[in-house]
Write a sequence for this structure.
């Protein structure tokens, strides 16, 4: 191998490319090999305006870019030091070097609750050789997770509850080529490139198929496959990739033709069968998150939201750029979007346009040569953003244990606990009582299954960088009186209630404690149900999974069994209302179907409503009664409560409104509106249509009223 | 030809998660649609470096640029630039380029940029100064489409004014450098250090370059200076001095900017072994941010320097993973017997360091050693788990 430094005649270059094109751009007396320098240094140099970063041998982070061998040594060292990191080869490069991935997770395959699948997460780095920022960021994420593995906070939580597969350098052959020539490159001889564009050496992007390692043997320097154009399903479908082997974006001969692409797909095996929820391909430069979309509306919404959150978490001016649906370029984020329904991004690390942003001269393509002085900050910012993404995709929080204790005796007066029974279900144990005294003081303890907050250097609860969630939970007591009406009492809550250290369940801020007084005027003996409503989100903005009985999980690009307080499954969650302080059972449920056909004056009628028109959630017996609503019941109308039968002979035309009330053994009720529409005797004429219309309108109003009564009040 | 459109970025999107409470899905959906439209529009946008003048702004593809530059007028100018390179001196023969009304704007900017870069390897002349002054007043109005992972972004074709400024500054530095090189005096050096923050950028760069170009000439004078004080007053000069003088080197390694210190250590570590290496290597070992890097420097010396060899082998035996990685990197398979032996020491750090060393080597000999150890019942089970090659 030799580095040629003397001018090269054009003739040599012209052997490889069309003379008619390159003559436009390649100066006849200039060398095609150039050197990056800090300051101008002659005809064959390109001055950057800042020191040219050279690879540094160091296991630990330095204010610069590490050599591949020392990055690899660092990755292996962390895997040996920690039981939470496993090194695995996922394939070989074109030049048969092993491609390493690192699985960061504890040794079991379940969350700390047991049985429940861990979240599968994948981040790739170094797919394009010249983007040195990328392996440093991946290594920064790895180092941060392992060096903080016992922090009882975010990092420990992620290692114990997710499976994070990191590929620090996918295109190892290409990366080594750039580090072999850290300040050298070849002026492009490709017909379609402007003549001042750099290729190979420090500016190699593609893999090393059909390329030797000698920069001075130029005929092969343009070759190689762009690994980010080598993927299904949009391989070779747009003019953003090329079938020309000399092109910077040559897509190869078929999807996944390259061993590096195959290795990336193999990395999914490290996730042990769980679906990948998040994929980030780490590139430079443009300072944004490209977001791949596939028309799955829920997935695309979630991806946009998370992309914006990660961009904000950098603390820098990253933006998000969503891609069009149903088209692509053959990139890896498309593969994980379309084939695996993961939230998938192409992260382009800074700078936005060029290194002029750091005081450099702003020469073409210098954005790929981040000044060494910037990389420590970049590692920190993008590690912070990635960890937020991992945390959010780990799943929403669930309130898995709650207690109300007597403030004086510390005895448990009401409790709730969820225990995982399988990957999809939790079982509940609970208790309640009726000892509540008006004005008396009680202590509430709420346990969540993840750390809910982060702290600043002073130990204060704060928002995660770039996020904005309400830091204290909103707590309410919801009471139901025997007539079905509701009482609400807000409880005081502030951030001091979040646990720290030994006061926590497992992680910092996974427990919240507060004291409250039983609301004045609430007579426990007169209340049928009293339950606690807890509205809180984790620090990534995930609301609670309000029905912990069914474990939320990732399915086809969205959440499954992620319920709100109305038991509606979606992607936002809601308030938990599972802890009962007083419980007399759920009120009966009116299922609809009580509709009396139109009657006629002077004619007897009989109507029986179905046995399942009302049901009791606890399966108990129900009793029925007919109530006026609002006018007194007519004397001709009879109700047989045992047989659920209405009968009588209406004397005149008109309408009668009433209610059928179902009552369970605890006195809880459900009400069905009843409207009888009586048409005139057969000799009469007109009016029936109007009456029917009025009846329908009244029915609608009554139904609406009833529906409003049954809904807990929205916040 | 595509036209430049005003920048359309999604400003303020970071606040979105709070703007949309989870319940308000319909509203959220509508606003997301708006945001998507905004962001999709922003896929094609110009960036911070885009020109801000009131002149015409255009974005070209590479093919369009190639076509423009292949026109006869542009080719004629290119030939003149090539001819200029052979003469090493500019006397105004391309001044017409500035005002040529026939030349398309993109061609003019490209050619002027080529000319300005060419002047960097030319002798300074009055005609050249004038040209550079004029070019510095010209806006860069042409953008070139670039492919960023399949998305097109238009970036400035060239940065004319900046390139001209750099060339002008380069000439000024060369002139200043000539004087500095003629009279290297201690007093001049001391004055420069004392007045460093007030010196012009040209003066600062000239001083740095003279020290870089003539280290042996300046080294006796540097030896008479207080390195710590120099680092305080003139940190960039101290870093350059550290490439020539080990006292300055030690000072920068101990107290200097981390990026500078790291680059400096890499430079010195690549040099042939010297007797006083331990002075600065010890300092680097004591600074946590440089410690691992220092071991790699020691590792490189270990094949020719018995002191370095003894020191790194001691650290490896004590289970230092940085030293181990550096040692196997420098000494290769010759370390296998020692590492194999170290596997059987009682201390876990020493055992783990040996595993790391053998895994990093990844040679047939190292892999054989790992395989043999994996089934050796004398080794603890938890260690054997780590022994796969």
């Amino acid at each position: 191998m030799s580095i040629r430094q003397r001018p090269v005649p054009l003739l040599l270059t012209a052997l490889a490319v069309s003379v008619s094109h390159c003559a436009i751009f390649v100066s006849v007396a200039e060398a095609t090999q150039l050197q990056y320098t800090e300051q101008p240094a002659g005809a064959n140099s390109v001055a950057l305006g800042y020191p040219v970063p050279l690879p540094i041998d160091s296991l630990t982070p330095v204010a610069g870019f590490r050599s591949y061998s020392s990055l690899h040594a660092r990755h292996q060292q962390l895997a040996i030091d920690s039981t939470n990191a496993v090194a695995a080869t996922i394939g070989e490069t074109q030049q048969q070097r092993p491609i390493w991935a690192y699985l960061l997770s504890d040794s079991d395959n379940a969350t700390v609750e047991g049985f429940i699948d861990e979240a599968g997460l994948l981040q790739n780095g170094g797919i394009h050789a010249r983007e040195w920022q990328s392996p440093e960021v991946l290594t920064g994420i790895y180092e941060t997770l392992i060096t903080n593995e016992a922090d009882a906070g975010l990092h420990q939580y992620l290692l114990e509850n997710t499976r994070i597969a990191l590929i620090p350098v996918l295109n190892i052959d290409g990366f080594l080529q750039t580090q072999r020539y850290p300040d050298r490159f070849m002026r492009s001889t490709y017909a379609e490139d402007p003549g001042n564009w750099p290729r190979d050496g420090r500016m190699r992007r593609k893999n090393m198929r059909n390329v030797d390692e000698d920069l001075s043997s130029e005929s092969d320097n343009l070759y190689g496959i762009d690994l980010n154009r080598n993927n299904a399903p949009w391989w070779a479908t747009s003019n953003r990739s090329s079938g020309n082997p000399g092109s910077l974006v040559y897509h190869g001969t078929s999807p996944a033709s390259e061993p590096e692409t195959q290795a990336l797909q193999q990395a999914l095996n490290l996730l042990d069968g769980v679906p990948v929820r998040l994929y980030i391909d780490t590139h430079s430069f443009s300072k944004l998150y490209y977001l791949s979309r596939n028309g799955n509306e829920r997935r695309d919404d979630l991806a946009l939201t998370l992309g914006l959150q990660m961009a904000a978490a950098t603390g820098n001016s990253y933006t998000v750029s969503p891609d069009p649906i149903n088209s692509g370029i053959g990139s890896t984020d498309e593969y994980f979007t379309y084939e695996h329904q993961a939230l998938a991004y192409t992260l382009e690390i800074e700078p936005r346009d060029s290194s002029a942003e750091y005081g450099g001269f702003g020469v073409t393509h210098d954005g790929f040569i981040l000044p060494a002085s910037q990389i420590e900050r970049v590692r920190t910012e993008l590690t912070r953003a990635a960890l937020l993404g991992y945390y959010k995709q780990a799943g929403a929080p669930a309130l898995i244990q709650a207690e109300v204790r007597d403030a004086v005796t510390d005895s448990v007066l009401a409790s709730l606990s969820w225990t995982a029974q399988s990957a999809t279900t939790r079982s509940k144990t609970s208790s309640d009582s009726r000892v509540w005294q008006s004005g008396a003081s009680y202590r509430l303890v709420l346990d969540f299954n993840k750390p809910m907050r982060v702290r600043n250097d002073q130990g204060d609860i704060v928002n995660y960088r770039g996020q904005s969630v309400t830091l204290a939970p909103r707590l309410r007591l919801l009471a139901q009186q025997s007539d079905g009406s509701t009482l609400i009492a807000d409880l005081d809550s502030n951030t001091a209630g979040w646990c720290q250290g030994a006061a926590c369940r497992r992680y910092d801020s996974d427990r919240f404690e507060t004291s409250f007084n039983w609301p004045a005027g609430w007579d426990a003996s007169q209340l049928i149900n009293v339950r606690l409503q807890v509205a809180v989100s984790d620090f990534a903005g995930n609301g609670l999974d309000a029905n912990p009985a069914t474990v939320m999980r990732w399915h086809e690009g969205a959440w499954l069994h992620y319920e709100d307080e109305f038991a509606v499954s979606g992607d936002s969650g809601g308030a938990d209302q599972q802890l009962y302080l007083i419980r007399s059972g759920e009120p009966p449920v009116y299922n609809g179907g009580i509709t009396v056909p139109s009657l006629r004056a002077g004619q007897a009628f009989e109507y029986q409503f179905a046995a399942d028109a009302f049901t009791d959630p606890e399966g108990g017996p129900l009793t029925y009664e007919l109530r006026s609503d609002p006018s007194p019941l007519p004397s001709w109308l009879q109700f047989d409560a045992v047989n659920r039968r209405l009968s009588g002979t209406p004397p005149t035309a008109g309408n009668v409104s009433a209610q059928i009330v179902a009552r369970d053994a605890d006195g809880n009720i459900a009400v069905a509106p009843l409207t009888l529409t009586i048409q005139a005797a057969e000799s009469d004429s007109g009016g029936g249509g109007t009456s029917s219309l009025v009846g329908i309108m009244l029915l609608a109003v009554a139904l609406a009223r009833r529906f409003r009564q049954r809904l807990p009040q929205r916040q | 030809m595509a036209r430049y459109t005003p920048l359309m970025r999604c400003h303020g999107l970071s606040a979105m998660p709070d703007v949309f409470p989870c319940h308000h899905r319909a509203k959220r959906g509508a606003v997301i649609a708006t945001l998507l439209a905004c962001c999709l529009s922003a896929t094609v946008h110009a960036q911070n470096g885009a020109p801000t003048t009131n002149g015409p702004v255009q974005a070209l593809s590479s093919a369009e640029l190639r076509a423009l530059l292949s026109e006869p007028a542009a080719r004629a100018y290119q030939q003149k630039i090539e001819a200029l390179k052979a003469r090493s001196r500019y006397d105004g023969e391309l001044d017409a380029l500035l005002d040529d009304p026939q030349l398309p704007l993109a061609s003019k900017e490209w050619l002027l940029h080529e000319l300005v870069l060419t002047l960097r390897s030319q002798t300074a002349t009055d005609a050249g100064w004038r040209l550079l002054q004029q070019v510095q007043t010209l806006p860069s109005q042409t953008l070139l489409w670039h492919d960023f992972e399949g998305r097109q972004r238009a970036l400035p074709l060239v940065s004319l004014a900046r390139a001209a400024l750099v060339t002008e500054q380069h000439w000024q530095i060369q002139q200043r450098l000539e004087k500095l090189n003629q009279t290297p005096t201690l007093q001049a050096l001391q004055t420069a250090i004392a007045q460093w923050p007030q010196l012009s950028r040209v003066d600062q760069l000239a001083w740095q370059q003279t020290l870089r170009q003539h280290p042996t000439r300046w080294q006796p004078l540097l030896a008479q200076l207080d390195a710590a004080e120099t680092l305080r007053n003139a940190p960039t000069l101290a870093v350059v001095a550290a490439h020539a003088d080990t006292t300055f080197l030690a000072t920068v390694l101990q107290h200097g900017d981390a990026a500078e210190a790291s680059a400096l250590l890499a430079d010195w570590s690549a040099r042939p072994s010297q007797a006083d290496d331990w002075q600065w290597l010890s300092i680097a070992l004591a600074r946590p941010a440089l410690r691992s890097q220092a071991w790699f420097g020691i590792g490189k010396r270990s094949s020719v320097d018995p002191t370095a060899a003894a020191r790194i082998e001691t650290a490896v035996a004590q289970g230092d993973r940085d030293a181990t990685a550096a040692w196997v990197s420098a000494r290769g398979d010759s370390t296998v017997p020692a590492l194999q032996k170290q596997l059987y020491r009682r201390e876990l750090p020493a055992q783990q360091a040996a595993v790391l060393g053998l895994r990093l080597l990844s040679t047939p000999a190292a892999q054989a050693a790992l395989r043999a150890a994996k089934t050796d019942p004398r080794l603890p089970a938890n260690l054997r788990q780590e022994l796969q090659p």
